[in-house]
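Section 3.1: Structural characterization of target chains.
Under the original work plan, the team committed to producing a structural model for every single-chain target entering the pipeline before any wet-lab resources were allocated. The record below documents one such target. The sequence was received from the expression subgroup and is listed exactly as submitted; it comprises 109 residues.
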Amino acid sequence: MEGQRSKARDIACATPTGSLGLAAICPNFDNMLARMSMNLCAGEVGDFYQRNRDLLHRPASDDNIRDWAEKETIYFKRQGGCTAFVGRRLTVEDRIRLMTNARDSAGRR
């Protein structure tokens, strides 16, 4: 059975070029914290991504990045157990920084 983190990655990475999902979120699934957590402590993050697919398809603008960072932070704050522990490690500002860096470095790859 596919894990929730894998589901979230697949949904984000299947969005169009220049979208929030592909340009700003997908590259971050390769960072160290994401790789270490694998599908552990993911809660229902894949379902969260599925419910918010429309936002993931929007352009990777600063406003859309902020909207996603706020929405994802709220999602993790509402989780329990290890999902909350892992997810709360990143603030809204941390998420914005990671997504903006991913988006801005995409053209340099």
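The first helix runs from residue 4 to 13.
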